[in-house]
Write a structure and sequence with these properties.
Elements (H helix, E strand, L loop, with lengths): L2 H10 L1 E8 L2 E15 L14 H7 L2 E6 L8 E3 L5 H12 L4 H7 L7 E7 L4 E6 L8 E5 L4 E6 L2 H8 L4 H8 L13 E8 L4 E3 L3
């Protein structure tokens, strides 16, 4: 997929989450979602020539995926390069206490040569891109629960493209962090199903 095609795909993609209330499944609600694109911004320095980073950020300044206006929840956030340092610092908070032996056992070889390009909002989980070695350009998700590093895509364009066509496993992961908490009652909701304007339907349970 070309970058202009990806831009259009993100901008045009909308849909709904069908949800049930946690602990009260007889109550249901429908949540509308859409994605938000930030315009490209001037960069202080050239980006590494890996993972389609340069082309991506020449077209898209940043992307907030599956955003719900009412609660403010979103599934993933691909951040502008100006925000990477803050994301890196937050990610380092999970690893800086590890001993040398623990780092060798737990962390991947590319960890000292990666960019923290995004996050799962309000979760403590981050989106990483390796910049050196055999994995250069590949995108991984870090889940602090168990210190898991999961390979998600071969580059950033591939990563976002995959997120625009959810499967049950990824939707369940999204549901575990997006609870659409009601500001008045505190009610939380679990996603049962996603339906989009392309006719794609996916459930959290198969």
């Amino acid at each position: 997929m070309t970058l202009p095609d990806l831009y259009r795909a993100i901008a045009e993609h909308t849909g709904t989450f069908s949800c049930e209330r946690i602990h009260k499944p007889q109550e249901t609600k429908t949540v509308n979602f859409r994605h938000h694109i930030q315009p490209p911004a001037a960069l202080g320095a050239p980006l590494p020539d890996v993972g389609q980073l340069r082309a991506f950020y020449a077209t898209l300044g940043g992307v907030l995926l599956y955003h719900d206006t009412d609660s403010g929840d979103a599934a993933r956030y691909i951040a502008p390069p100006a925000e990477w340092a803050d994301l890196q610092e937050a990610f380092n908070g999970w690893t800086e206490h590890l001993s040398d032996e623990e780092r060798e056992d737990i962390l991947p070889d590319w960890i000292d040569h990666c960019l923290v390009v995004g996050e799962t909002p309000h979760s403590g989980n981050y989106i990483l891109m390796a910049t050196d070695g055999e994995c250069a350009g590949q995108v991984f998700e870090f889940d602090h629960d168990g210190f898991e590093f999961t390979h998600m895509a071969d580059d950033l364009v591939d990563y976002v493209q995959r997120l625009l066509h959810l499967d049950s496993q990824v939707l369940a992961n999204i549901a575990s962090h997006m609870r659409f908490i009601d500001k008045n009652t505190g009610a939380q909701w679990w996603i049962l199903e996603m339906n989009d304007n392309r006719g794609h339907r996916v459930c959290t349970q198969v």
